[in-house]
Amino acid sequence: MFPGILRLVLTDLRSSWLEAVAALILIGAGIIGVAYFTTQAQHTQSQVRAAYQEEGAATFVVELSGVSDEEVDRLVAAVRQLQDVGPADAPYSGLELGIQADVSFLVFENAKQKEYLGARTNVLGVGPFFKPKTGYFVDFHWLNPSAPRAVLGIPLLPAAGEFRSPKANEILLPSTVTDYVGVQTGAQATVELVYANSDPPIVRRLDDFRLVGIFDIAGPDRGRIDPFWRLSYVGEPLLTARGTGGTEATTVPVLLNRAVVQDFLRSVESQRRSSSVPLPARSQLVVSATAVANVPAAQKKVVTLLEAQGLKPAGEADQPGAHTYRVLVPERNNFISAQREQRKIGTGGTYFAALLLILLAVGTGGLQVLATLTRWRDYGVLQAVGFSPVQILMVYGGQLLLVLTSAILLAGLAVLFSSRLAHSREVFATAAALAVLATIVGSVPALLWPMRTRPAAMLKELQ
Amino acid sequence: MIVPRLVLAGFGRRTIELILAALVIATLSAVIASATAVIEGARAALYRFERKERPDVIHVIGRFNRALFELPRRGNLPPATLPVYEPRIEPEELKSAVSNATVVKRQSLLRNVVTENSALNVYIFGIDPEMEQQVGAFHVAAGRFLTAGDQNVAVLDEASARSLGVRVGDSFPVRTAGDTDLRLTVVGVLDSVQFHAPPLATVPAPALQPSAPFVTSGVFVPLRTSEEIFARPTLTDALVVPKSSNEVPTVVDHIRQQFRLNTGVFVEESYTQYLRKVRDFQLTLTLFRAVSLLTAVLASAVVAALMHDVYKDRLYQYGVLAAVGFCPFHILALILGTAIIVAMAGVGSGLSLAAAFLPRQFEMPSLLANMGAVTPRFNGVVVALVIVAALAAVFAGAARTLWSLVRGPVARSLRK
Description:
Chain A contains 13 helices and 17 strands. By secondary structure, chain A is of the alpha+beta class. In chain A, helix 9 runs parallel beside helix 12 (425-448) and helix 11 (389-417) packs antiparallel against helix 12 (425-448). Classes of the chains: A alpha+beta (463), B alpha+beta (416). At the A-B interface, helix 2, helix 6, strand 12 and helix 9 of A face helix 2 and helix 8 of B.
């Protein structure tokens, strides 16, 4: 019986090849459409993931307490060796240490007087592992001691010149400073490091710093600086006039080599030996995981390492000087937000894919109705000559199966020629399965429809 | 009665196909409407963010002049007559560099207004009133804003007006570069000022927002008046607005090229940072656009196939009508009438479906821009697109039949 039915299937297909080819193309296009959409959705997700990683979503901060400056360096070196951990650094942040920088440039000179334009900003001492775009974090607690411990990542974005960690006689400046003064890269700057938490403030003047790079800065201060004009007469500073801003410390930094800041801190320490108030110490480790998804694993490994070194998780009632650590996830741009945003693409993608599949079901249903109506007479004849409804279903169901198989093969062939349509076998298999399911759901009612009509009624319609 | 029968009756079992075509159009319309409403909502969110960030505005500024001239002046020091920025930007030179873009010219000055009892620093901005309002917002509390034909008049904010002790209709003197006093008549007082790319606040002066690091107040005068005060047409700064944000990098290059020999001119743009912020949002939007297009094409093909089958089956009837003397125009109207009725029935149901089931909020990723959930927008574009897609599909289905009737002899249609 089966060879006979198969012969009938093929003969019928030959007579209505145009409809069969149309259905084949539609289903094939549907499979390719779903596969292409899934591929593009995954591609978009990976692009977004890469963008988030580039923006620092894979970075987290560990704040240490009661750990000496040398010990911090040793710990950060050990963290870099951990699996799942990428670059790690422990920058010197002026906001934490109470240091500010007055950076100025000579803008006018005659025999007696010299005029400088400059700005007071935060200072950041960085080493070769520092990543300007993702490595600068400000703890709200530094700005306001009553604020909760929370860190905000402030990206430094390249604007002009070189964008790397500065050497000992180099400096990188925010564009608000360079635009205010009117200087380009290559200019010679004078830097005055100021430790303001002593009376009088401790100041160290450093000349001939070469401006190697300029960066734009995002963040809460929107590039806010405290500009000043300075006049010196016969080599002696005479007057410094500051603007009205700058009553609060700005988060906008200048980038200096870490050794410069370290030296200054040592000199401050030696000058303050008699002071009872201890000098604030560097406490922040900025750690990047190798990928956004690896952040939890990297955090665990860092915590294990710190605990192995005798540090304990920080609590509210810690004694001053206790060896503690606190892992902080940056506000807003962190791995949790990154994963949540990525999931939105998946949710939106599912919505659109569902619409596509509904359309495929309705579309193939329509084509099946078209085929059924074209063969309406054949159904009546087959039933009249003794075919049972199941056998008729096998004939036309077999045709649909053949069309489906050919459509999958056609789509597979198209995918072989262009990997952009489906980047993996799994994607193609899923797309084919979903498209076949949608096709069957859409077509079966139209296949069953003639079975419910009596042969006599069908043959009567022929007259 | 005959016309509706000719348009809608006599399809036999093909009525099922017509109903199904309408159903597919309904699904197609629902899909296109949902997708377009989401995309329109996303575009609107992006547009709102773009209006807020203004990545299309390029700021060209001269370097700050030596701060000596910005010092607060007290006692017997004479009034100063020099600007905040060095005037390095020749308007014609800038215009030639950005011929296809809009240039908003500015002269930003700092002046002492000296009265009998006091001297006060004020920022004076020479602006093109119409252009400036396209990039900033000025809310007038009393009087009016500047107009293009104004001369020797000023609009100032409430803080400056209070400090100067002037109201609408009063006047006050400003020292010009020619060492003469120019009297400016106040025509309006502003209670809020959103001045795009204001200069840094570097001297004590009246301010609407005293803690802001940039200038939040000032005296706004027409450019012609500021040129008279300044005694030169050279600009201290300017805003360049290209026709679209995408042109910003090219325009910036042109400006840099034009002023390459003038190291005191700086170009600032926010387009690069804007792109960084909306990258994830734009990528997702592109994906959804591609899927919607693909869906529309697929569904239209199905509708066209169904309609073609319906019309093919009815070709004989059209041949009979032609043979009994129906004019081709009437037959065309019958064919298109059926197509339009089916399309409109589908569109109506599809739009209702979409309106009923479309999510009220749609989540799109925007980590750095923080744009929040997108509200799908059901607007004219959505309806127009749905109607166009449905009509295109049904007309594509009718095309071959129409072609046979128009080009072929009637006998061929009757033979079928």
